[in-house]
């Protein structure tokens, strides 16, 4: 449904700005692969950002100054995966990191 919606918007106006905001970098990469690889499409003025990336972009645009990167989304996801594996997040989340997409769920 997402790919079809993006294709419909960009077919109507190829220059229309479109931003897709997702909760994790793993999902961001998946959407890019879906649109570019599986659907074989390229788009102008299309951004797929995580919440973190969007907030950084907004702050940088508002202040005119770049924010130094503390860590990228992939590093955060790996940290969460390690914490979940060790049980540091509590028993409620035990085994989540081992499930498909478990690291992305934590981010």
Question: What would your notes on this structure say?
Answer:
The chain has helices spanning 2-12, 25-38, 51-63, 73-86, 102-106, and strands at 18-22, 46-50. The longest helix is centred in the N-terminal third of the chain and has 14 residues, at 25-38. It has a two-stranded parallel ribbon. The chain is mainly alpha-helical and 107 residues long. It is flat and about 50 Å long. 53% of the residues lie in helices and 9% in strands. β1 (18-22), α2 and β2 form a beta-alpha-beta unit. The relative contact order is 0.15. It is built from 5 helices and 2 strands. The two termini are 23 Å apart.
List keywords for this structure.
107 residues; mainly alpha; two-stranded parallel sheet; 5 helices; 2 strands; 9% strand
How are the SSEs placed, and which strands pair?
Elements: H1 2-12, E1 18-22, H2 25-38, E2 46-50, H3 51-63, H4 73-86, H5 102-106
Parallel strand pairs: 1-2
Q: Largest sheet, if any?
A: 2 strands, parallel
Strand order of the largest sheet: 1-2
Report the average pLDDT across residues: 79
Order of helices and strands: HEHEHHH
Q: Which regions have little confidence, pLDDT < 50, spanning 5+ residues?
A: none
Number of helices: 5
Helical residue percent band:
40-55%
Please state the structural category.
mainly alpha
Q: Which range does the strand content fall in? A: 5-15%
Distance between the termini: 23 Å
Envelope shape: flat
Number of strands: 2
Rounded to an integer in angstroms, the radius of gyration calculated over CA atoms is: 17 Å
């Amino acid at each position: 449904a997402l790919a079809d919606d993006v294709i419909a918007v960009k077919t109507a106006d190829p220059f229309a700005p479109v931003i897709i905001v997702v909760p994790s970098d793993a999902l961001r990469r998946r959407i890019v692969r879906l649109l570019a690889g599986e659907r074989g499409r390229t788009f102008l003025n299309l951004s797929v950002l995580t919440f973190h990336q969007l907030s950084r972009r907004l702050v940088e645009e508002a202040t005119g100054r770049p924010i130094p990167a503390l860590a990228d989304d992939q590093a955060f996801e790996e940290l969460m995966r390690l914490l979940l594996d060790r049980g540091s997040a509590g028993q409620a989340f035990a085994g989540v990191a081992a499930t498909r997409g478990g690291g992305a769920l934590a981010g």
